[in-house]
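wait is this the right file?? whatever heres the structure
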């Protein structure tokens, strides 16, 4: 016959009771709770917390006063190595979200992608007027030339159009983030350059 020490039985019982009493702090944030469990909208006290597979919740009370379980905020940190073998986004981290100095990022299985970032778009226009000489004419952008500020937030793609009064051409213009230029062929024609800048993400 096997004999079990009384202390071991009591210890096991204490562990089971502890798990039952604390189960509400770990599960069922969204679904209907059973005994000792909490869900969003139920009464609570003493900074209770709960979570399930798709939500976390916390009590609106920080003491003995009655409160209500509400959806809780979530702090996201940066992936580090260790504990991970590498911080590179790969198939093992697909679906992971992190926060770095540059903002929120999500791993798509191969690279970290910025989340919630809208590319900067601005249109810069300059009227060169009628030039008495042929050749390239350049203009350095100033804020007043552009609809949404200067293109100074990184790398951009630019789409150019030159209005000569008799038509438009894409072959006699140039652009970078600092300036735009046109190639004057007809010295009696007014040249107007329009450049749309779209930030590359």
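ok assuming it is, sequence goes like this
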């Amino acid at each position: 016959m096997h004999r079990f020490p009384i202390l071991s039985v009591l210890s096991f019982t204490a562990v089971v009771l502890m798990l039952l009493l604390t189960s509400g702090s770990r599960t069922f944030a969204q679904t209907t709770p059973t005994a000792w469990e909490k869900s969003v909208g139920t009464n609570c006290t003493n900074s209770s917390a709960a979570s399930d597979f798709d939500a976390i919740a916390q009590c609106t009370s920080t003491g003995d006063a009655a409160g209500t379980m509400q959806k809780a905020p979530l702090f996201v940190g940066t992936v580090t190595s260790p504990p991970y073998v590498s911080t590179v986004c790969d198939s093992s981290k697909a679906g992971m979200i992190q926060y770095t100095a540059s903002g929120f990022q999500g791993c798509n299985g191969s690279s970290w992608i910025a989340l919630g970032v809208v590319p900067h778009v601005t249109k810069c226009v300059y009227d060169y007027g009628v030039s008495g000489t042929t050749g390239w004419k350049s203009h350095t952008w100033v804020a007043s030339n552009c609809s949404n500020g200067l293109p100074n937030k990184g790398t951009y793609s630019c789409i150019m159009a030159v209005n000569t009064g008799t038509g438009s051409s894409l072959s006699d213009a140039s652009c970078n983030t600092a300036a735009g230029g046109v190639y004057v062929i007809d010295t009696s024609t007014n040249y107007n350059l329009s450049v749309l800048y779209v930030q590359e993400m």
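The radius of gyration is 32 Å. so i think its the right one actually
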